[in-house]
Amino acid sequence: MAVLKALRQTPSALQRNPILFVPVLVILLFQIPQLVLQAVNPLVASIVSMVLSLVFIFVMPFFQAGIVGMADEALDGRTSLDSFLRAGKTNYVSVLAASLVLVAVNFVLGFVAFFVAIFGGFAILSDTGGGIGIVGLVIIGLIGALVILAYLLFVFFVQFYSQAIVVDDLGAVDGLKHSISVVRHHLVSTLGYSVLVGILGGVAGGVFGIASLLASPQSTSALALPEVSLAGVVGVTLLVIAFGTLFGGFFGVYSVAFYRTINPGATDGA
């Protein structure tokens, strides 16, 4: 099974190439100011978070392509930071273009969902005579569910676009198309992979969420939790970075190993 085969390949690749954790660590180090500022000045922390989010839109494609390139090389033997830089520079434009397509689709679907929610809430609040009825609520609910389903299906089918671009040397559009094609021919395996990654991602997200709560004085006060000192916030942040580095490095290699397993064009393909 592709999920298990990729799982077996990942630890050995990481053991041979601990350098794979370095790019992930660099990304996570950018989170330190944000988490520490939450304990000092939450308003400034929010501004920093928004600025970093905008910067990451244009920076992450380089790291994304570089990590995929390193992982692909590591699965066959040894890799290095030179491979990270080479893959990042070579595939930056294509990965950036594909990621902007994803951002645009997310924006459109998010706008539709927001509009449906606002319209539904306004209709319910203004409907004093009960004219909207259960049928109207069901229709609004179905539209919202369809938007969510469309988003999940889109993400499910295009999730390997960066792997397709870097591993198979494709452009942005061809990378998205190839991801859709590969997933379409391996639906069951990809579903198992997505469930596993979703569970692991949920655990990682929970860790980051708890760290964010502990770092925020407002959150600790609202939840009646003891306030964490600045030194404690730094300690929690360092633990989160260590955990995030391990998870990010594992996921980076595992995603490429799984893609190579289900991709008929890869040297390790099934």
From TrEMBL:
The chain crosses the membrane at residues 48-71, 92-125, 131-158, 191-216, 228-254. The keyword Transmembrane helix applies. Keywords: Membrane, Transmembrane, Transmembrane helix. It comes from the Archaea. The keyword Membrane applies. Residues 1-261 form the DUF7847 domain. It holds the Pfam family DUF7847. This is DUF7847 domain-containing protein.
